[in-house]
């Protein structure tokens, strides 16, 4: 019981960083039997996440093609939106593969629970590497991206055109077809929506990067444990035939699990 609890604690620590981000964005799979309230809450989070990301992405793309005539400035405006679109696509793919993701997480959990102490130490070592990488990505994205979205309109202030028209700066300029974004309180609403859009975008990016890192490093751990099993078999020459066959069967089963 103590070993199982330790394995659960180690697994929880290894996934703590990107688990919270997946949970915030609604991308963490619910249990097979979920309550109605949890399903409704997750649906609301997903809807909010898509809304605040698209409310920045679509007007910015429209502005780049419909309003901006300078090719260099157009590319400069589109560059961050291409990144936002890529994160939105990865976010959507994660939802489309939610069943596979849930199954994968269960297999990883079983690997931790059934591992020996030596193999679990390998898992912990690689998990620490992944956690540090995700933390580094998160600090970079949130400190840089959110600071830009929050501080750019404040530091640049208002722009006065030659015809005495005052333009309030947004971190992501947009073309809003059906309303004027310069009037109050529309400007303030869009300003805060762009901040929340950045928060969900960077959370989704860090979460997906965390999943990729976890998969790669867990695969490295499994390969390392497979190598240890084969080395242990080759080093023990005084084993009975039945014991050898059992170890070979274990190695083959472990290899099939890695391939799957």
TrEMBL record:
Keywords: Membrane, Olfaction, Receptor, Sensory transduction, Transducer, Transmembrane, Transmembrane helix. GO terms for biological process: signal transduction. The keyword Transmembrane helix applies. GO terms for cellular component: plasma membrane. Pfam families: 7tm_6. It is a multi-pass membrane protein. Its main location: membrane. InterPro entries: 7tm6_olfct_rcpt. This is Uncharacterized protein. It comes from Tetragonisca angustula. The lineage of its organism: Eukaryota, Metazoa, Ecdysozoa, Arthropoda, Hexapoda.
